[in-house]
């Protein structure tokens, strides 16, 4: 999704106006375009925890700056540094932290190098090469299990506290609750088999 000339004009004007460029109302069309683009290519999921935005309003979706805009102003509108995330991952957990970087100073020189990042980069890495995600939904019962495959997967799992979303993520997906106990209800046998297998891995 290359930014067109009109987008660049709006960005240039916002920068010239000074202050918080990202909060400038004049770039709202650019931000809407960015959000729609990443919502389309991500299948409508948070780039970190894969929570679904299906049917949700745009207001519940944050435009994520992998390198925080407060510290890496040069990359505010660089597409490699943008994606969409849920408010739990973006505002509650990641915020302006830099401990997901191998070196917060060296990354400035080579920000598109995936080796500079300890987490799964939403644009530079293939998520499911580093993390497996199993989701089983049957009526009102939901089972979720993340399984790190590589070191970046393990770091992402720990950094974003993905264990809190496992087993029963219905209430905890936006940080409302904590990890639930395994469900003890009467389920069809095939559902029980899958659920028990996931529970054994926790």
Automatic annotation (TrEMBL):
Protein name listed in UniProt: HNH endonuclease
Organism (species): Pedobacter ginsengiterrae
């Amino acid at each position: 999704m290359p930014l067109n000339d009109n987008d660049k004009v709006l960005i240039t004007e916002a920068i010239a106006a000074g202050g918080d460029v990202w909060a400038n109302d004049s770039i709202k069309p650019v931000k809407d375009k960015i959000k729609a683009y990443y919502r389309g290519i991500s299948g409508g999921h948070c780039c970190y925890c894969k929570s679904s935005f299906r049917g949700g309003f745009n207001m519940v979706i944050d435009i994520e700056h992998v390198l925080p805009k407060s510290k890496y102003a040069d990359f505010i509108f660089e597409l490699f540094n943008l994606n969409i995330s849920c408010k739990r991952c973006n505002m509650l957990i990641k915020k302006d932290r830099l401990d997901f970087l191998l070196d917060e100073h060296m990354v400035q020189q080579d920000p598109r190098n995936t080796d500079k990042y300890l987490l799964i980069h939403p644009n530079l890495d293939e998520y499911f090469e580093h993390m497996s995600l199993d989701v089983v939904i049957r009526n009102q019962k939901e089972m979720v299990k993340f399984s790190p495959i590589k070191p970046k997967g393990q770091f992402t799992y720990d950094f974003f506290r993905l264990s809190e979303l496992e087993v029963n993520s219905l209430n905890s997906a936006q940080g409302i609750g904590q990890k639930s106990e395994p469900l003890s209800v009467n389920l069809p046998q095939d559902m029980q088999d899958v659920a028990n297998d996931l529970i054994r891995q926790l």
